[in-house]
Amino acid sequence: MEFSKGHGTENDFVILPDPDARLDLDAPRIAALCDRRRGLGADGLLRVARAGALVAAGVLDALPEGTAADDWFMDYRNADGSIAEMCGNGVRVFAHYLTAHGLENRSEFVVGSRAGGKPVVVHESGPVVGEVTVDMGVVRTLGESTATLDGRVYPGLGIDVGNPHLACVDPHLTDTALAALDLSAPGFDPGFFPHGVNIEFLTPISSGVVHMRVHERGVGETRSCGTGTVAAAAAALRFDGATDGAVRVQIPGGAVQVCIENGRAWLRGPSVLVATGTIDDDWWSAQA
Ligand SMILES: N[C@@H](CCC[C@H](N)C(=O)O)C(=O)O
Q1: CA of 228 to the centre of ligand 1 (A)
Q2: Ligand 1 pocket residues where CB is under 6 Å
Q3: Which ligand 1 atom lies nearest to the CA of residue 161?
Q4: Cα separations in angstroms, 280 against 36, 76, 110, 141, 277
Q5: With contact defined as beta carbons under 8 Å apart, do 159 and 139 qualify?
Q6: Is 225 designated active site?
Q7: What pLDDT, in 10s, does the model give residues 113-162?
Q8: How many angstroms does the Cα of residue 89 sit away from the middle of ligand 1?
Q9: Measured on CA atoms in the order 63, 69, 74, 78, is the torsion positive or negative?
Q10: Which residue's CA is the nearest one to ligand 1's atom 2?
């Protein structure tokens, strides 16, 4: 079985081309594939399938809003095998993969996701390096909540970008202090986030830039989270009493640009396609 490996600001993915949605992607198999010792290793998996084929195969109940049957659909899974609605870095890598591998010849098209169709603009699509802007859609504020880290309470803003986030802007945090935090097990209010949450810790905006780290639901700490950078930008703007603006979000894996206008967000950033290869059929069958 063919696979590719790619990353967006070092948030890395195994990409499985499966246009007709034939693969059985059960959670233990995905967890094994994404494991960095037992498998290929990745923060998540991107199945490349036609949206209509996923409906026909029973993976999706119906076509999500803004998605047509012929659209390519990013069937995203976290490293632990759980399903997530959206992945901002994943969409950029997915769109780059489609164009670089000749599955899509337009530079502007819609990528299907469980959070709806996401229009993308592919600015660059080399065999290795790409650059993509994603229309991330509406950023919905859920209200205030808190995260805990090492016994300290961080006030944050619940934000829905298709998937749930808790973005904690700490006015006392410098980029050096942020780098020293232990993000292995942040706490959150499960009553507020019954389906779990991705948690961002960040500095306020300074010269248009915030520094952010993230603990992802279903993965652990990652070096970047695209939806998380959008949530972070929205929370940082609100911290400054603003709703709209452009924010450069610096994460351990690089930097992305987030633009928010009238409650809608655009995410622009890089994508890197690292490798293609073959997964051994015997190994794959043994994981079932
Ligand atoms: N890394 C992704 C987000 C992936 C999903 C997330 N872990 C969740 O469970 O919601 C991104 O770039 O947005």
Answers
A1: 7
A2: 11, 44, 78, 84, 87-90, 163, 198, 216-219, 222, 225-228
A3: 13
A4: 16, 22, 32, 44, 10
A5: yes
A6: yes
A7: 999 999 999 999 999 999 999 999 999 999 999 999 999 999 999 999 99
A8: 8
A9: positive
A10: 87
For ligand 1, atom 3, which residue shows the shortest CA distance? 87
pTM for this model (two decimals): 0.98
Q: One of 34, 168, 225, 259 is an active-site residue; which one?
A: 225
